[in-house]
Amino acid sequence: MLMKGSKLHRTLILMKAENFQQPILIDVFKINSEKENQYDLPIWFQ
Length: 46
What we know:
- This protein is mainly β.
- It has strands at residues 6-15, 24-33.
- The chain has one domain.
- β1 and β2 (24-33) form a beta hairpin.
- It starts with 5 loop residues before the first strand and ends in a 13-residue tail after the last strand.
């Protein structure tokens, strides 16, 4: 859940690359907020 006054833009890219057997998933977050906040990512981002 985002804090009040925050906006999240998320982009997911799934692409095939010649050097990899499996597709690559790129997950990009851009967050704008009126004040400083801490956002905790899920455990699978480790």
